[in-house]
Amino acid sequence: MDQRVTVFSESRDDPFALHLAASAVLDDRGTVVGWSRPAQDLLGYPETAVLGRPVLQVLIDPRDLRAAKNAAATCRRAGGWFGVLAVRHRSGRLVEMAFRAGALLRDGDVREWFLVGAPAAEVLEWQRDRAVLDGLFRRCPIGLVVHSPEMTILRVNRAVERFTGVPAVSFRGMHTGALLVADDARKAVDRVRQVMQTGRSLISTEQYTRLERDPTRERAASVSAFRLEDPSGRVLGVAETVEDITERHRARLRLALIAQAGTRIGTTLDVETTASELADVVVPHLADHVSVDLSQPVTRGEASAQGLTEPVVRVAVRSILDQQPGLPQPGGEPLQFAPDTPQARCLTDGRAVLESVLPPDLFSMEPRQAEYPPDLGVHSLIVVPLGSRGLVLGAMSLWRSRRPEPFEADDLTLAQEIASRAAVCIDNAQRYTQQQQTALTLQRSLLPRAVPHQAAIEVAPRYFPARAASGLGGDWFDVIPLSGARVALVVGDVVGHGLHASATMGRLRTAVHTLASLDLEPEEVLSHLDDLVNLLAAEQEAVGEQPVGEQVIGATCLYALYDPVSRLCSVARAGHPPPVVTTPDGQVSLLELPAGPPLGLGGLPFEARDIELAEGSLLTLYTNGLIGERHIDVDTGLTRLCEALTHPADPLERTCQAVVDSLVLAHPADDIALLIARTRVLPPQNVASWGLPLDPTSAARARALTTAQLTEWGLEHLAFTTELIASELVTNAYRYAGGPVTLRLIRERSLICEVSDTSHTSPHLRRARTTDEGGRGLFLVAQMTERWGTRYTREGKTVWTEQPLPGQ
Q: N or C terminus of the chain with fewer C-beta within 10 Å?
């Protein structure tokens, strides 16, 4: 029997395979006694050229002769050899060959040597391929699964063994997806079948799997798959690579959730809106249910305590369920947590609480004294404080019920990161609310609290503070009673927002009242206001108090003066939108006025226009916030305003509300001041006027006329004082003025006595000495009247007095 050392490979793709490799047989002296056809094809020597010749002489290059002799010695000593030698081709070129050599023992102890060779490059490439294949199944960290066409597992590598905890040998013959829960197994089978049928590979697709032995833990895997085919195209199966990317996937989700929290939380400066945005971000990405509880002072814009002990208010609730049984809704009664609950510990200590597995008796407290779970299946809880600047503002509670995996330490860290960002936004909103309330309180204290009743007009005012992030503005309105039953209507708008604008508005409103009490014409009032604004701006610049990014003080204003006796309305504006006039028959139009520069520019004149208004006309004054909201342009706003004013006979409050419904948003971006006035006219029988000559008999004439008129009005009890007042005023006009004198009596809410002349000299009240023969007239007038004063007109001046009427 021959004994042969195995030097051929059984693999069909191995370069040392019998049908591929060059082979030769050497006797014990190294003479070639056998030569194969592949050897002839590879080296170019026919059998006749090599048989019977020493192999070292025929094939080995002299430079590799020593290496060849060493290989022969090793072969004799060990019974075999493997290595690389340079072999001479018949053409003379050298060919690097990899050789395997083994001994053959024949009958009679005759020893021969079997030599197999292949190109060294092909052998090296094959060895590298074998190393890669071996590495994939033994050392590769990425899982490899080979599926058969019958959807069974042929082989897995050791990474899959580590991933599943099942030995690799146990996988052989298992059905595809056998270790997965039913839903995930069905998806895995469909995925492999699709690749096998279509031949389209899958590249790095993310799959989510749960093992049957640990169904509560969801894993993320990056799966690639490709079809296996033999050279003839026959399908041999599908190979899948599976990489466990659970931690990387979770980290990416956490980063995405943090980024989402940064963009979605804090879009407004409203506490409740910010809390709702926090709840929206958390559910369902981190928790199945969430509630946000804030201390009562925070919701009111007040500071919170260091450790919360007072009740909290639920401001936001979110859940993956349509109904949340047992979970108090926002806007309900204040909640008081029992001392043992995680919420109470979190609020008191300001530290987060993680309950990965909830004890069964956690929610067995008395009603409304503890936090009840929103779902009977709740199994895990996180409570994190909402703290900023060392203060605890509230707490956020997160539950899991439908998601099987419990909360972990990484989830707690993520919840704390989101909560800390949200707490800063809530704190900013709370501080903004506090500033808004302070500014609003200041602003409301500066605005008229009640509109005085006027016989000249009926008014319906509205004021809406801004709800934008820029803060309150400086809009204002006023209704100022003047002498002679007249009334001044004012609207204005200070440039800027916040406390600074509100304070400036208060100063300007006070100045308007002072100027109006002087009975100045509208254009004169605006001129004095312009000087005041310039003065305030200069003071602000001098002390460096100008807010960063804001312009120097400026304002717009519209001043209207209405006389119910003459029905004349004198209007002037300083950069303000013109008023809207509605006639009694419903005709609406903008009053054409000289624009006038805004207050604060200085040096430019203001002009007034006189218009006669029929009784029952509407005069509408407003600030630009009414017609210049962001959702409409100014022209559209004016059109809507005019449409809402086409029914002057309607109750004034209804008309005012129609304007509000048409133009005012729920949260206006700018302050809005609106003032609608319906004009009235004093009946002719309530006004008596006489022209008096400038002679010594005028005083007596004035007393007689006054007594007769008061008797006609049924005011005889005022005859003595009134005729004395009229006599003194006419006497002063006779002494110090020139031209005709006019005496006028007006019966309104008070008895008004006016004496007009052509002089601009103002009468002065003085205290006469005992030796003086005169100077006591105005002193007596002041003592007998409720008010008195002087107003100037283009033709002269008017001295007026008012006496209260009985019952008024």
A: N
Residues 189 and 148: their CA atoms lie apart, in Å, by 12
Which regions in the chain score pLDDT beneath 70?
1-19, 107-110, 303-310, 322-333, 360-376, 467-472, 542-552, 629-632, 764-777, 807-808
- For residue 792, the 8-state DSSP code is E
Superfamily the domain 685-804 falls into: Histidine kinase-like ATPase, C-terminal domain (3.30.565.10)
Q: CA 121: distance to chain centroid? A: 65
Question: What pLDDT score was predicted for residue 549?
Answer: 44
List beta partners, residue 153.
147
3-state helix, strand, coil in the chain (%, to 5): 35, 30, 35
Give me the pLDDT at residue 171, please: 86
What does the angle CA 622 – CA 668 – CA 593 come to, to the nearest 5 degrees? Answer: 20
Using DSSP's 3-state secondary structure scheme, residue 298 falls into: helix
Q: Tell me, what's the pLDDT at 776?
A: 59
The pTM score is 0.61
The listed CATH number (3.30.450.20, 3.40.190.170, 1.10.1740.10, 2.60.120.200) that belongs to domain 3-127: 3.30.450.20
What 73-82 contacts at long range (C-beta under 8 Å, 24+ apart), as own/partner pairs, is 75/101, 75/103, 75/113, 79/5, 79/103, 80/5, 80/7
Superfamily of domain 452-679: PPM-type phosphatase domain (3.60.40.10)
Q: Which two tokens stand for residue 274?
A: 């910010």
Six-digit token string for 773: 């023969």
192-200: list long-range contacts, CB under 8 Å, 24+ apart.
Answer: 192/147, 192/151, 192/225, 192/238, 192/240, 193/151, 195/225, 195/226, 195/227, 195/238, 196/147, 196/149, 196/227, 196/235, 196/237, 196/238, 199/227
Does the 266-437 domain belong in CATH 3.40.309.10? no
Are the C-beta atoms of 51 and 32 separated by less than 8 Å? yes
